[in-house]
Specification:
10 helices; elongated
Length: 235
C-alpha cells in the first residue's frame, strides 16, 4: 500500500447528508456553536420527509433570524466570532483549517479604521498564512500521488480515468483544511476543478505547481480550473 493509499484509507469515505448540510450551516457567518445548535434544532423540529431538514417557510424564518442576530452584533463581537470560526476545525499540528468563509463574513462586517482594525488585520494575515499552508499540503499530495502512480504507454484509458477520479477524491479530503471542494469534471474526470471561493490563477499555481503538470497531463487531465468560471490552464 502506498502512502497516499494509506492516507485515503484513514479518511472518511463519504459524509452523510446531515454532515454535508452541517458544513453549509457553518459557513453562514455565526459562531460554530450557535450554528450547530441551529442545526440540531432544525433536525429535532422538522417533520419533513427524509432528506429535508425543514419546510421552505421554516428555513426562511431561521435565515431571517440568523441575519437579524448577525447585523445586531457589535464590531468587537464580530471579531470574537471570527476568532471562534477560525478555531473550528483548526489542525494545530499543521497550522491549517478553520472556517475561513465564516470568519471572513464577520471580518467584512467590521467598519474600517475602528479600534478593532489591528485585530482584523492580524486575523486576515493568519487566514492568508493558513491558505498558503493548505495549498502546500495539496501540492505535496499531488506530487506524491503522481510519483506513486506512474503512467506509461501501457496504462489503459480506463486505468487513467480511475486514477484521475482517485486524485480528485483525495484532494477533496483536504477541503476541511481550507483548500475548498475539489472535483473531477466532465467525461472521464478530465477537468480538475477547485471550488474555493478565492480561487484564482495564483492559487492554481500553488495547488498544482509547474513540476506536477507533466504528471497531470500524463494522467489525462486536459484542464485545471477554478469553479464559477474562474482561472484555468491546460497542463
Amino acid at each position: 500500500m502506498t502512502q497516499t493509499d494509506a492516507e485515503d484509507a484513514a479518511e472518511p469515505k463519504g459524509a452523510p447528508r446531515a454532515l454535508v448540510l452541517l458544513g453549509a450551516v457553518l459557513v453562514l457567518g455565526g459562531a460554530c456553536v450557535g450554528a450547530i445548535a441551529l442545526y440540531g434544532r432544525a433536525l429535532t423540529e422538522s417533520d419533513a420527509a427524509v432528506g429535508t431538514l425543514a419546510s421552505p417557510e421554516e428555513r426562511a424564518a431561521r435565515m431571517a433570524e440568523a441575519h437579524r442576530v448577525f447585523v445586531a452584533m457589535s464590531p468587537a463581537e464580530h471579531v470574537a466570532a471570527a476568532e471562534h470560526e477560525l478555531a473550528c476545525g483548526y489542525v494545530a499540528a499543521d497550522g491549517v483549517g478553520g472556517n475561513m468563509a465564516g470568519a471572513e463574513s464577520h471580518l467584512a462586517a467590521v467598519p474600517a479604521g475602528g479600534p478593532e482594525a489591528a485585530r482584523v488585520a492580524a486575523l486576515r494575515a493568519e487566514m492568508a498564512a493558513r491558505r498558503e499552508r493548505s495549498a502546500g499540503a495539496a501540492a505535496v499530495r499531488v506530487t506524491r500521488f503522481i510519483a506513486e502512480h506512474p503512467v506509461t504507454t501501457a496504462t489503459s484509458d480506463d486505468d487513467r480515468a480511475a486514477l484521475r477520479h482517485q486524485l480528485a477524491h483525495r484532494l477533496d479530503h483536504l477541503a476541511r483544511l481550507g483548500v475548498g471542494c475539489v472535483h473531477g469534471e466532465g467525461d472521464g474526470d478530465r477537468t480538475l476543478r477547485f471550488d474555493h471561493g478565492a480561487c484564482d490563477a495564483a492559487m492554481l499555481d500553488r495547488l498544482t505547481p509547474a513540476g506536477v503538470r507533466p504528471g497531470l497531463r500524463a494522467l489525462g487531465f486536459t484542464q485545471v480550473r477554478c469553479g464559477r468560471g474562474g482561472a484555468s490552464y491546460a497542463p
